C-alpha cells in the first residue's frame, strides 16, 4: 500500500475466493488475501507477508482518507486476532483435558498403585503383621459393627492371617470393593464423578491409585506438563519419598473434583505392609450426587506461583484451592435463623449450671426428684436431660456422659426421632412403624401409646431394656488427661465403660470414623 509500511489482511481460503479474483493473473504458489478496512483482494507470495501482532504499528500516510481506512482496518484486525486466539486457547485446553468428546482423555484403569522406576514397594512381614480377634463364626467378622482392632487402627486384615478367612470384611482395598460410580461432564470443571446407589457414612468409596513415582520423576513430569501448558494435575503425596500420579493410570477416583465442603474424606490405610490412600463417605450421599473431597493443595499453586481458583460453589468456599474455608464450623440454616450458635451454647451451659446448683431435678426415666449427687446430666450441649445414677445402673458420676436418648434402640447408631414421653429413640433406618404422630407436632412411641402411663422405673415401656445399655461415658473419661474447657466429643463402645453392667441383649458396637485430615495433598 502506498504511504504505509504494511496493511493488515487475512488469508482467503480457495473455496471463498470470488470468481473475478480467481480470473485475475496469478502464478503457482500465490495465494489470495483480503485487506481489513478496504476489503480489497490481492494475490501475493509468502515472502511478502508476516504474522500479525496486536501491538504492531505502521507509519501513517499523509492522505487523510487513507489514514482513516488504515485505522479502521487495524481495529478490525485486532478484533479478529483476539477472537482467533481465544478460539485457539479454548480448543487447546479442551484437547489437553480430553473434554472435546463424549469420553475423557484415555487412561489405563487400575485398582492398585503401579511402581515406576526404582520406587520401593513395601511388603508385609507375616511374623509381625497385626492380627485382629475376629472369628469365622462371628455375626459380622471384621465389619462395621464388630470390634476389629485392625479396622479401628486403619489397617487392612491380611488374607493369610485373619481368622475370619473369606468372611473378613476388612479387605476392601485388596479386593477393590468400590462403590458403583460413573463419570459425567460438569461444565467448567471438566469431568466429575457421581454414585449410582446411596453411600452411607464411613463407607469405602474408592482408592486413589495410579503410577507410584519418586520426587525426581514428579519434577520431570511436572516440567513436561508445564511446557505443554496442561492445566490438569493428578499428583497425590503418599509419603516423604513417593507420590501417586493418576493421570496415565488410575480408577474412577481420578475424576473426583475438589470441594471446600466435600462429602468424602481421604484416609491413609496400611494394606499388606504398605500405605495406600482411600476415600470414605463423610455423610450419607444420595444417588446421582457428585462425589468430592478436599485436595489440600498448597495455596502457592504449581504454575507460575499463582493460586488456582476454586469452582466448587459451596457455601464455605474459600475462593482458591488450598485456602481454608471461610467457616470451620458448619451451622445449620435453622440455627442461623434463630441466632448465633455460640450464644445458644452459652445459654444451655448457663441453664445446666443452674440445674446443678438447685439440688433438685426430675429424673427423665422415673419422674422422681433427685437430690444433689444422686443424678447425672447429659453432656451434650443441646440436651438438658438428667437421670438417677441408679436408673442408669451407675455407681458414680463421670466427667462427661451422654444419655441413652441419643442412640437408637435397635442398632445403637445416632437417633433421628425421639419420643416426647420417654427416652425411646430410633435412627432414620428404624423409626418407621415405631412412632405415632400426635396433633401433627409431637411423636410418641408405640409403647407409650399402648400403655396408659409413661415409662417409669417400675414398669419400663421400652422395646429394649435401656437400663442395661445406657452407661456411655466418653472416651476421655476412661483415660487420664489434662482438663480443658472445650475438647472434641468422642463416644466409645458401651462395652468399654467401667460403669456399664452386663445385659442380656448385646448392644451393637458404634463405629468410630477416624478422620485423617491433611495426611495427603493433591498437587
In short:
By secondary structure, the protein is of the alpha+beta class. The chain has seven helices and 24 strands.
Task: Explain what you see.
Helix content is 16%, strand content 16%. The protein has a four-stranded mixed β-sheet with strand order 5-9-11-10. It has a three-stranded antiparallel β-sheet with strand order 1-2-3, with no helix packed on it. It contains seven helices and 24 strands. It is of the alpha+beta class. The radius of gyration is 34 Å and the shape is elongated.
Overall body shape: elongated
* Total number of beta strands: 24
Strand arrangement, major sheet: 5-9-11-10
- State the low-pLDDT regions, or none: 298-305, 328-338, 452-523
**How much β-strand is present in the residues?**
15-25%
Terminal-residue CA separation: 54 Å
Features:
523 residues; alpha+beta; three-stranded antiparallel β-sheet; elongated
Topology, pairings included?
Layout: E1 9-11, H1 19-22, E2 31-35, E3 41-44, H2 64-97, E4 108-109, E5 114-115, H3 149-152, E6 181-185, E7 191-195, E8 204-208, E9 211-214, H4 215-228, E10 235-237, E11 242-245, E12 249-250, E13 257-258, E14 264-271, E15 274-281, E16 292-293, H5 333-338, H6 341-358, E17 361-362, E18 369-370, E19 375-377, E20 386-388, E21 417-418, E22 425-426, E23 435-438, E24 442-445, H7 446-450
Parallel strand pairs: 4-12, 5-9, 13-16
Antiparallel strand pairs: 1-2, 2-3, 6-7, 8-15, 9-11, 10-11, 14-15, 17-18, 19-20, 21-22, 23-24
Amino acid at each position: 500500500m502506498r504511504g504505509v509500511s504494511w496493511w493488515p489482511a487475512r488469508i482467503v481460503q480457495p473455496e471463498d475466493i470470488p470468481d473475478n479474483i480467481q480470473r485475475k493473473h496469478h502464478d503457482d504458489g500465490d495465494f489470495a488475501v483480503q485487506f481489513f478496512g478496504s476489503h480489497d483482494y490481492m494475490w501475493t507470495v509468502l515472502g511478502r507477508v508476516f504474522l500479525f501482532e496486536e501491538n504492531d504499528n505502521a507509519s501513517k500516510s499523509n492522505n487523510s482518507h487513507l489514514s482513516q481506512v488504515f485505522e479502521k482496518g487495524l481495529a478490525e484486525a485486532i478484533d479478529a486476532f483476539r477472537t482467533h486466539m481465544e478460539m485457539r486457547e479454548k480448543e487447546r485446553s479442551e484437547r489437553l483435558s480430553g473434554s472435546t468428546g463424549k469420553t475423557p482423555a484415555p487412561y489405563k484403569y487400575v485398582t492398585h498403585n503401579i511402581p515406576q522406576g526404582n520406587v520401593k514397594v513395601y511388603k508385609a512381614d507375616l511374623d509381625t503383621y497385626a492380627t485382629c480377634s475376629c472369628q469365622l463364626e462371628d455375626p459380622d467378622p471384621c465389619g462395621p459393627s464388630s470390634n476389629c482392632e485392625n479396622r479401628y487402627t486403619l489397617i487392612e486384615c491380611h488374607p493369610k492371617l485373619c481368622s475370619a478367612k473369606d468372611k473378613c470384611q476388612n479387605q476392601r482395598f485388596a479386593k477393590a470393593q468400590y462403590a458403583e460410580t460413573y463419570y459425567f461432564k460438569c461444565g467448567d470443571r471438566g469431568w466429575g464423578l457421581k454414585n449410582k446407589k446411596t453411600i452411607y457414612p464411613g463407607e469405602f468409596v474408592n482408592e486413589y491409585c495410579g503410577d507410584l513415582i519418586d520426587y525426581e520423576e514428579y519434577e520431570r513430569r511436572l516440567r513436561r506438563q508445564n511446557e505443554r501448558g496442561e492445566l490438569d494435575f493428578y499428583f497425590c503425596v503418599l509419603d516423604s519419598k513417593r507420590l501417586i500420579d493418576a493421570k496415565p493410570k488410575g480408577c474412577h477416583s481420578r475424576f473426583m473434583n475438589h470441594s471446600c465442603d466435600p462429602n468424602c474424606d481421604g484416609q491413609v490405610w496400611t494394606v499388606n505392609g504398605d500405605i495406600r490412600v482411600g476415600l470414605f463417605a463423610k455423610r450419607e450421599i444420595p444417588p446421582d450426587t457428585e462425589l468430592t473431597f478436599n485436595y489440600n493443595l498448597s495455596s502457592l499453586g504449581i504454575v507460575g506461583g499463582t493460586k488456582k481458583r476454586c469452582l466448587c460453589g459451596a457455601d464455605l468456599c474459600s475462593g482458591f484451592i488450598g485456602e481454608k474455608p471461610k467457616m470451620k464450623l458448619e451451622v445449620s440454616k435453622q440455627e442461623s435463623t434463630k441466632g448465633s450458635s455460640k450464644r445458644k451454647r452459652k445459654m444451655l451451659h448457663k441453664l445446666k449450671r443452674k440445674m446443678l446448683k438447685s439440688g433438685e431435678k426430675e429424673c427423665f426415666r422415673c419422674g422422681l426428684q433427685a437430690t444433689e449427687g444422686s443424678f447425672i446430666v447429659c453432656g451434650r450441649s443441646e440436651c438438658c436431660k438428667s437421670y438417677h445414677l441408679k436408673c442408669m445402673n451407675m455407681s458414680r458420676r463421670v466427667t462427661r456422659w451422654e444419655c441413652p436418648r441419643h442412640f437408637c434402640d435397635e442398632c445403637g447408631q445416632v437417633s433421628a426421632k425421639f419420643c416426647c414421653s420417654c427416652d425411646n429413640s430410633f435412627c432414620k433406618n428404624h423409626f418407621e412403624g415405631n412412632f405415632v404422630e400426635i396433633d401433627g407436632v409431637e411423636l410418641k412411641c408405640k409403647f407409650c401409646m399402648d400403655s396408659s402411663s409413661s415409662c417409669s422405673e417400675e414398669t419400663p415401656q421400652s422395646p429394649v431394656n435401656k437400663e442395661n445399655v445406657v452407661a456411655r461415658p466418653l472416651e476421655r473419661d476412661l483415660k487420664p488427661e489434662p482438663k480443658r474447657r472445650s475438647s472434641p466429643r468422642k463416644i466409645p463402645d458401651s462395652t468399654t465403660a467401667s460403669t456399664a453392667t452386663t445385659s442380656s441383649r448385646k448392644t451393637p458396637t458404634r463405629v468410630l470414623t477416624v478422620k485423617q485430615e491433611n495426611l495427603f495433598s493433591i498437587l
